[in-house]
């Protein structure tokens, strides 16, 4: 038997007990170590969903997890019990037209942990033990903590956004919204060779983290409402903008400061937006969406394994499994929390 964090309805989070899943020949049994609370998890907890996506049955939350392999299926090679891993939550079918094109994040039969996009819902990974496909397991170096390894998923989101932007090498880059994905994106931009990174938010704490992750300059728009105005000179300064706040106003403001033929990548999910198309057309701007990731997960794990990205500034709190509701409430308080992680107890060594 295994306990899991289950959302039954808005503000109704419970620790429910599940039968242990049977281990298939190509699967691994894993003791979950750490799980990071994502924005989508918060939407399920607070509102029962987002947009048209709604919880219609109790659903285990969570998709940002690390763990320790406890058992190995008979057909699995190259991994043994005791191996510490980051777990990709993405399980595309590999057969549909989009998987065949290499666009696995658009799989028509995607099974992504903790998602109510399909019914029955895809149950999440916030549980004490989990059976995964061997392909989801990414080995960790002995030097990387399991807590930091659980950042691989949000880092992957940022890396895919960078891939969607095209080359950022030597470019002037604006990042609006400095939550966990925004600041991990900033770290990825540093690795990708961005020449200058300006980060914008409406609170000081996220901007401090943005600096720690590699931003050259930060602007708090709540205390400096005209902080972006100088960047609008001569039709705009920034070659690329990443909108990671989900705020409609932030997206529109980018049109003023992005240079003609610049690229705007929208990451944050904030509902519908109204854009001045005359400005988009007149400056020949490119607006691009970005959704999840696929091959970037392995790259994210490598960056973390090799110390090329240090995620320690991003993790603000680690809360024990039995205090899950408190962890979710804390994660929703952006005045004091960045990435809140849940400790599921598999990792007995201090990280």
Instruction: Please mark out the parts with pLDDT under 50 across 5 or more consecutive residues, or reply none.
Output: none
Cα-to-Cα separation, first versus last residue: 27 Å
Discrete helix count: 10
Alpha-beta classification = alpha/beta
Instruction: Predict the CATH topology of the largest domain.
Output: Quinone Oxidoreductase, Chain A, domain 1
Quaternary: single chain
The sequence of SSEs as H and E is: EEEHEEEEEEHEEEHHEHEHEEHEHEHEHE
Q: Which CATH first-tier class of the largest domain would you pick?
A: Alpha Beta
> What share of residues is helical?
10-25%
Mean pLDDT: 94
Counting structural domains, the number is 2
Shape: globular
**CATH level-4 homologous superfamily of the largest domain:** Medium-chain alcohol dehydrogenases, catalytic domain
CATH architecture assignment name of the largest domain: Alpha-Beta Complex
Question: What's the short story on this structure?
Answer:
This protein is α/β, with parallel strands linked by helices.
How would you portray this structure in words?
The protein has helices spanning 39-47, 97-100, 146-149, 152-165, 180-192, 204-212, 248-257, 277-282, 296-305, 324-331; strands at residues 2-9, 12-18, 27-36, 49-50, 53-54, 59-60, 64-72, 84-87, 90-91, 111-112, 129-133, 137-139, 172-176, 196-201, 217-220, 238-243, 258-266, 286-289, 315-320, 339-343. It is an alpha/beta fold. The protein folds into two domains: 2-151 and 311-343, Quinone Oxidoreductase, Chain A, domain 1 (Alpha-Beta Complex), CATH 3.90.180; 158-289, 3-Layer(aba) Sandwich (Rossmann fold). Strands 3, 7, 8, 11, 12, 19 and 20 form a seven-stranded mixed sheet that branches. A six-stranded parallel sheet has the order 15-14-13-16-17-18, with helices on both faces. Strands 2-1-6 form a three-stranded antiparallel sheet, with helices on one face. It is globular, with a radius of gyration of 20 Å. 48% of the residues are buried.
């Amino acid at each position: 038997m295994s306990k899991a964090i289950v959302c039954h309805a808005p503000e109704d989070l419970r620790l429910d007990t599940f039968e242990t899943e049977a281990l298939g020949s190509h699967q691994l049994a894993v003791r979950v170590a750490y799980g990071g609370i994502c924005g989508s998890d918060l939407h399920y907890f607070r509102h029962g969903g987002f947009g048209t996506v709604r919880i219609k049955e109790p659903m285990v939350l969570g998709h940002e997890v690390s763990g320790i392999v406890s058992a190995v299926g008979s057909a699995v090679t190259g991994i043994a019990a005791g191996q510490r891993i980051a777990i990709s939550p993405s399980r595309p079918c590999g057969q549909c037209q989009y998987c065949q094109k290499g666009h696995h994040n658009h799989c028509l039969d995607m099974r992504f942990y903790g998602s109510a996009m399909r019914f029955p819902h895809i149950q999440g990974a916030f549980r004490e033990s989990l059976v995964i496909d061997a392909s989801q397991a990414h080995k960790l170096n002995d030097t990387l903590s399991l807590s930091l390894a659980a950042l691989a998923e949000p880092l992957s989101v940022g890396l895919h956004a960078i891939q969607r932007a095209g080359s950022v090498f030597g470019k002037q880059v604006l990042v609006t919204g400095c939550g966990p994905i925004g600041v991990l994106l900033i770290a990825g931009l540093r690795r990708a060779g961005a020449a200058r990174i300006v980060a914008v938010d409406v609170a000081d704490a996220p901007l401090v983290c943005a600096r720690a992750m590699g931003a050259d300059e930060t602007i708090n728009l709540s205390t400096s409402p005209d902080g972006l105005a100088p960047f609008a000179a001569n039709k705009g300064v920034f070659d690329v903008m990443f909108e990671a706040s989900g705020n409609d106003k932030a997206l529109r403001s980018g049109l003023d400061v992005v240079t003609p033929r610049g690229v705007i990548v929208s990451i944050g999910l904030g509902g519908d937006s109204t854009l001045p198309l005359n400005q988009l057309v007149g400056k020949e701007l490119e607006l691009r969406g970005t959704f999840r990731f696929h091959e970037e997960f392995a790259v994210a794990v490598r960056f973390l394994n090799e110390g090329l990205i240090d995620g320690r500034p991003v993790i603000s709190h680690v809360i024990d499994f039995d205090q899950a509701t408190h962890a979710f409430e804390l994660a929703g308080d952006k005045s004091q929390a960045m990435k809140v992680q849940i400790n599921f107890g598999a990792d007995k060594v201090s990280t």
